[in-house]
Design goal:
The protein is α+β, with helices and mostly antiparallel strands. Helices cover about 25% and strands about 25% of the residues.
Length: about 90
C-alpha cells in the first residue's frame, strides 16, 4: 500500500480518516445521508460497534448513537475528502 497507495480500494477510507479525524467506528457507520457534499459537511451521529459473544453465537455488529453528546458533531470536508467520497 505504501508504494502505490491509490491502487488499493482502502485508500479513500484511510484518506477520509486521516483528513477528518474520524474514528474507525464512525467512518464505518456512515450513511450517504450523513454526507452533505454541497455544504461540505459530514454529520457524525452514530457509530458501528462490534460485539463478541465469546460463545457459539460468535459476534455481531450494531449501529448505535455516540456514548455522549460530544460524540455527535459536524465535520467540515476539504475538497480532497469530497473527492475520496466520490471515488
Amino acid at each position: 500500500m505504501l508504494s502505490h497507495p491509490k491502487d488499493t480500494h482502502w485508500y479513500p477510507v484511510f484518506y477520509v480518516m486521516a483528513n477528518t479525524g474520524m474514528r474507525v467506528g464512525e467512518i464505518t457507520g456512515l450513511r450517504w445521508s450523513d454526507i452533505d457534499l454541497k455544504k461540505g459537511i459530514i454529520r457524525v451521529n452514530h457509530t458501528l460497534v462490534y460485539y463478541n459473544h465469546r460463545d457459539e453465537k460468535g459476534c455481531y455488529f450494531s449501529i448505535n448513537t455516540p456514548k455522549t453528546k460530544a460524540g455527535e458533531r459536524e465535520i467540515p470536508m476539504t475538497e480532497g475528502v469530497k473527492q475520496a467520497f466520490l471515488g
